[in-house]
């Protein structure tokens, strides 16, 4: 998506965007796909084939997982980038091409250079303008926007609704599979729900960490007003939650303004309790530390 956006917004946007999956091709096939081949150059080459670098001329060549290219092919790729010239497999006449190159990889190319697994000259040739794309776990604020956009892609505008508690769970999940995993989670949930509202029960187990834990039965000696129970739980949550109020509100499935209102009432209640205890102690002639 990023490569496509760069291509479309550039002066080469009117040209082709040619993606190459470097990890899915072996060395022999990769060279043929990249540079093309002449008829009869190897068994099965029944006709001349134009390579991807030739097809990308005037546009953008996108090498996905460039770290998977073998050292032998890295030499040829470097020569192509330096001169703009290449030869088809089995051919003798040099050909010229002109394209913008965008590379992507999950690997640490600098460490591969140090281990001798990636050519240093090619590394510095392709890393003129690196763009680091943070994983989804570091973009918590993007989860809601992405989820709603993906749900529209799955079923159309307004068909699926995310419950607040569901969204809170999605924002806390680290998503090791990034946006693709988020898409699969939402596809699964949309199949399981029956009323177009996606609830936590429709999410897979890894997104709901407490699902498989047995919650101990609450112990009460008498019927307690719900407001008092909420106050006690909120006091416990504030003491034990490691994060800011915005994150706590999402975890509780409420908006941040509602949380602030409840916390304000909690402080007022605790203040009244403290003042009442001080007055009682003063009336009994006792000193209370401030």
Order of helices and strands: HEHEEHEHEEEHHHEHHEHHH
Report the oligomer: single chain
Q: Rough shape?
A: elongated
pLDDT averaged over residues:
84
Q: What is the CA-atom radius of gyration, in angstroms?
A: 30 Å
Query: Helix count, per DSSP?
Result: 12
> Helix/strand/pairing class, anyone?
mainly alpha
Helix amount: 40-55%
The main sheet orders its strands as: 1-4-7
Span of the ends, CA to CA: 60 Å
Model regions low in confidence, pLDDT < 50 over at least 5 residues: none
Question: Proportion of β residues?
Answer: 5-15%
Give a quick set of tags describing it.
290 residues, mainly alpha, three-stranded parallel β-sheet, two-stranded antiparallel sheet, 12 helices, 9 strands, elongated
Describe this structure in words.
With 290 residues, this protein is mainly alpha-helical. The chain has helices at residues 2-8, 27-35, 52-55, 71-83, 109-114, 120-126, 142-155, 164-172, 178-192, 226-240, 245-252, 256-283, and strands at 17-21, 36-37, 49-50, 60-64, 85-86, 95-96, 100-104, 161-162, 197-198. A 3-stranded parallel β-sheet has the order 1-4-7. A two-stranded antiparallel sheet has the order 2-3. β5 (85-86) and β6 form a beta hairpin. α7 (142-155) packs across α9 (178-192). The radius of gyration is 30 Å and the shape is elongated. The protein starts with a helix and ends in a 7-residue tail after the last helix.
Q: What is the fold's blueprint, element by element?
A:
Elements: H1 2-8, E1 17-21, H2 27-35, E2 36-37, E3 49-50, H3 52-55, E4 60-64, H4 71-83, E5 85-86, E6 95-96, E7 100-104, H5 109-114, H6 120-126, H7 142-155, E8 161-162, H8 164-172, H9 178-192, E9 197-198, H10 226-240, H11 245-252, H12 256-283
Parallel strand pairs: 1-4, 4-7, 8-9
Antiparallel strand pairs: 2-3, 5-6
Helix pairs in contact: 7-9, 11-12
């Amino acid at each position: 998506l990023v490569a496509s956006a760069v291509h479309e917004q550039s002066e080469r946007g009117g040209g082709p965007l040619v993606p190459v999956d470097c990890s899915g091709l072996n060395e022999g096939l990769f060279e043929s796909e990249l540079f093309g081949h002449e008829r009869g150059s190897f068994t099965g080459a029944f006709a001349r084939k134009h390579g991807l670098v030739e097809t990308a001329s005037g546009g953008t060549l996108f090498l996905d997982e460039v770290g998977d290219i073998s050292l032998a092919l890295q030499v040829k790729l470097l020569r192509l980038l330096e001169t703009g010239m290449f030869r088809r497999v089995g051919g003798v006449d040099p050909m010229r091409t002109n394209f913008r190159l965008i590379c992507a990889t999950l690997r640490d190319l600098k460490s591969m250079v140090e281990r001798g697994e990636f050519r240093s000259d090619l590394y510095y040739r392709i890393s003129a303008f690196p763009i680091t794309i943070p994983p989804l776990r570091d973009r918590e604020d993007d989860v809601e926007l992405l989820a709603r956009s993906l749900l529209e892609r799955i079923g159309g505008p307004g068909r699926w609704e995310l419950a607040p508690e569901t969204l809170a769970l999605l924002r806390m999940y680290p998503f090791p599979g990034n946006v693709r995993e988020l898409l699969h989670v939402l596809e699964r949930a949309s199949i399981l729900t029956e009323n177009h509202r996606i609830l936590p029960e429709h999410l897979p187990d890894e997104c709901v960490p407490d699902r498989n834990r047995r919650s101990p039965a609450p112990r009460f000696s008498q019927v307690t007003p719900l407001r008092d129970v909420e106050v006690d739980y909120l006091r416990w949550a504030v003491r034990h939650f490691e994060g800011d109020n915005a994150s706590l509100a999402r975890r509780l499935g409420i908006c941040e303004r509602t949380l602030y209102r409840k916390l304000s009432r909690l402080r007022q209640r605790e203040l009244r309790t403290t003042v009442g205890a001080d007055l009682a102690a003063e009336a009994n002639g006792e000193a209370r530390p401030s």
